[in-house]
TrEMBL record:
Pfam family, one: Usp
Source taxonomy: Bacteria, Pseudomonadati, Bacteroidota, Flavobacteriia, Flavobacteriales
Protein name: Universal stress protein UspA
Boundaries of every UspA domain copy: 1-147
PANTHER family linked: STRESS RESPONSE PROTEIN NHAX (PTHR46268), UNIVERSAL STRESS PROTEIN UP12 (PTHR46268:SF6)
Leader sequence residues: none
InterPro entries: Rossmann-like_a/b/a_fold, Universal_stress_UspA, UspA
Family: Belongs to the universal stress protein A family.
C-alpha cells in the first residue's frame, strides 16, 4: 500500500486539501499520514529557572490537545464522503516544518506529499519561496499542491507539461499509472517557442512509444509559455496540472507571481510537481 504524507495546520486551506488527499488515497490505494508540527519558542532558562520545563510541557500539551480535538473533524469529513475505510495515521512533531517533513518522508517511505496552499500570496511563496523550494528540492516524491479555492471534483483529465527530454518519459509513465487508477486521460503539452530545439521526429517517437496509452500529445507554438499553459488548462479541461521540477530558474519562470495569480484566480486547480531524477 502506498503512503501519502499530509502536512496540516488545520486551516481552511489544509481542510480543503484533506478532501483531495482522501480521494487521491482512494484512487491510488494509499494510507494517509497526517503531519502536524509546532515550534516551541526559545526561552532563556536563566529567567525561568523553575518554570522552564513546565513552560515547554504546557506548550506540548496544548498542541496535543488541539491535535486531538481536530482529528475527529477530519474523520467526520472522511465519513461524509464514504471514505472512512482510508487508513489514517498521525504524526505530531515539534520543530521546523520542512525539517520534520523531510524526515517523515524518509522514515515512513512516503510516496506522495499533498498539501494545501492559501491562494495568491501563498502560491507565490510556495513556488518561488525558500520554504517550498526546500520541500520540493528536499524530497524525491511527487508533491500535490492544492489551492484553497480548488474544490474537489472527479479527475477526468490530467495535464502533463514536458520539454520532450528522454528522462521526462519516466515521469509521464508515473502520471499515466495515476491516470489509469482514476480512469482519467492525460493531455501532454509542449510549448514550442522560436528557440525550441525539439524536432518533429522526437515528438513522433514519443507518440509511437506511448501509442497504447490514454495520452494525447499537443504541441503549441508560442513564445508566451505561461499564457499558453494557462490557455491549455482553461480550454483543454485540465483538472490537475503536472509539471516536472527541472531547475529552479525554470520553475520560478513558469510560476511567477503574475502567473500563479492567474491560476488561482481563473482556474484554481491542483498542481502535481514531479521530479526529474
Amino acid at each position: 500500500m502506498k503512503k501519502i504524507l499530509f502536512p496540516t495546520d488545520f486551516s481552511e486551506a489544509a481542510t480543503n486539501a484533506f478532501v483531495h488527499a482522501l480521494e487521491f488515497a482512494k484512487a491510488v490505494n494509499a494510507e494517509l499520514i497526517l503531519l502536524h508540527t509546532f515550534e516551541i519558542p526559545v526561552y532563556d532558562s536563566q529567567f525561568f529557572p523553575e518554570n522552564y520545563a513546565a513552560i515547554y510541557s504546557s506548550i506540548e500539551l496544548a498542541n496535543f490537545e488541539m491535535f486531538k480535538d481536530e482529528i475527529p473533524k477530519l474523520k467526520t469529513i472522511a465519513m461524509e464522503r464514504n471514505l472512512e475505510d482510508i487508513v489514517i495515521k498521525h504524526r505530531l512533531m515539534d520543530g521546523d516544518l520542512i525539517y520534520n517533513l523531510k524526515n517523515a518522508v524518509e522514515e515512513d517511505k512516503v510516496d506522495f506529499v499533498i498539501m494545501g496552499t492559501n491562494g495568491i500570496s501563498d502560491w507565490t511563496t510556495f513556488f518561488v519561496g525558500s520554504n517550498t523550494s526546500s520541500v520540493i528540492s528536499g524530497v524525491n516524491v511527487p508533491v500535490l499542491c492544492v489551492p484553497v479555492d480548488a474544490k474537489f471534483k472527479k479527475i477526468k483529465v490530467i495535464g502533463f507539461t514536458t520539454r520532450y527530454r528522454e528522462k521526462d518519459k519516466k515521469e509521464l509513465k508515473e502520471v499515466l499509472k495515476i491516470a489509469k487508477k482514476m480512469d482519467a486521460k492525460v493531455r501532454s503539452l509542449y510549448v514550442k517557442t522560436s528557440v525550441s530545439d525539439v524536432t518533429p521526429e522526437t515528438v513522433k517517437e514519443w507518440e509511437v512509444e506511448f501509442a497504447g496509452e490514454n495520452v494525447e500529445f499537443l504541441v503549441l507554438p508560442s513564445d508566451d509559455v505561461k499564457e499558453t499553459i494557462l490557455d491549455f488548462i482553461l480550454y483543454k479541461d485540465i483538472d490537475i496540472l503536472t509539471t516536472i521540477n527541472h531547475k529552479r530558474s525554470f520553475f520560478e519562470s513558469v510560476f511567477s507571481s503574475s502567473f500563479s495569480k492567474n491560476i488561482t484566480k481563473e482556474v484554481s486547480i491542483p498542481v502535481l510537481v514531479m521530479h526529474d531524477n
